[in-house]
């Protein structure tokens, strides 16, 4: 309605009259640490801090566990070295992911960027790496119009001050069914060999790569991506997700 410039000029005025509404509950956002979560939802957001599962990042809730996998990924047999997640994808965390993934809610990325910057363990984890978004199949990309994992990887890169760049090294060469309704075994079969390096991409063995996705569910997709990077010669591969499903 206003055009880009118009919107930039008008937005601050609109906010005076119409405060932003919370992505989690729809209430007005006032005096909150986040731009798009109200104070209550901000409190409910479960930001993950160590100790956490080394594979998927799930918090250990004070359980004295070894450095190995939690029940979520006990059967994963990960091709990557380590995983971290920023928050749990339930309640407000789930709402943030959904807003970005299904509603083109790119505006929440400002909150994501700030959360990543404030979570010292997550930020340290992202340091000195190349961030590689999990790619969408071209058909899926056309359908959705954007790849949410790319947007997240860009936001995380900004959180590192640009020191860890985002590089689109992978492509999806197999159109896969949505993983949502598949069981663990079928998910694994579904994404096997679905990814490959993009043409002319260069993988450096000594470089730390971090695969970036919206949520960690069973880890099959991230694992298949890690396999493609590994085949291309990458020796140091980690994964980072926004939420843990
Ligand atoms: Zn709320
Ligand atoms: Zn785990």
Automatic annotation (TrEMBL):
Q: Which GO terms describe its molecular function?
A: glycosyltransferase activity
Identify the domain of life: Bacteria
Instruction: Please state the span of the N-terminal signal peptide per the UniProt entry.
Output: none
Q: Fetch the Pfam families from UniProt.
A: DZR_2 (PF18912), Pribosyltran (PF00156)
> Matching InterPro entries, A to Z?
ComF/GntX_DNA_util-trans, DZR_2, PRTase-like, PRTase_dom
Q: Where is the Double zinc ribbon domain?
A: 14-74
Going by the UniProt record, its keywords in alphabetical order are: Glycosyltransferase, Transferase
Residues of the Phosphoribosyltransferase domain:
161-242
Family stated for the protein in its record: Belongs to the ComF/GntX family.
Q: What protein name does the entry list?
A: Amidophosphoribosyltransferase
């Amino acid at each position: 309605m206003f055009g880009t410039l118009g919107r930039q000029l008008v937005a601050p005025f609109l906010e005076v009259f119409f405060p932003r509404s919370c992505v989690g509950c729809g209430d007005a956002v006032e005096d909150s640490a986040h731009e798009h979560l109200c104070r209550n939802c901000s409190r409910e957001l479960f930001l993950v801090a160590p100790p956490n599962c080394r594979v998927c990042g799930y918090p250990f809730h004070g359980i004295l566990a070894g450095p190995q996998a939690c029940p979520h990924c006990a059967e994963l047999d990960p091709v990557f070295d380590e995983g971290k997640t920023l928050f749990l994808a339930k309640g407000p965390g789930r709402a943030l992911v959904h807003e970005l993934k299904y509603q083109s809610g790119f505006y929440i990325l400002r909150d994501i960027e700030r959360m990543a910057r404030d979570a010292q363990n997550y930020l340290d984890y992202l340091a000195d790496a190349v961030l590689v978004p999990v790619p969408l199949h071209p058909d899926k990309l056309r359908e959705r119009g954007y790849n949410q994992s790319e947007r997240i990887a860009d936001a995380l890169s900004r959180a590192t001050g640009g020191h860890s760049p985002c590089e689109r090294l992978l492509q999806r060469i197999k159109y896969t069914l949505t993983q949502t309704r598949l069981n663990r075994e079928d998910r694994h079969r579904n994404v096997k060999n679905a990814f490959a390096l993009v043409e002319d991409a260069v993988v450096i063995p000594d470089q730390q790569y971090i695969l970036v996705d919206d949520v960690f569910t069973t880890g099959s997709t991230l694992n298949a991506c890690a396999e493609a990077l590994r085949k291309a010669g990458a020796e140091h591969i980690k994964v980072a997700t926004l939420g843990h499903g």
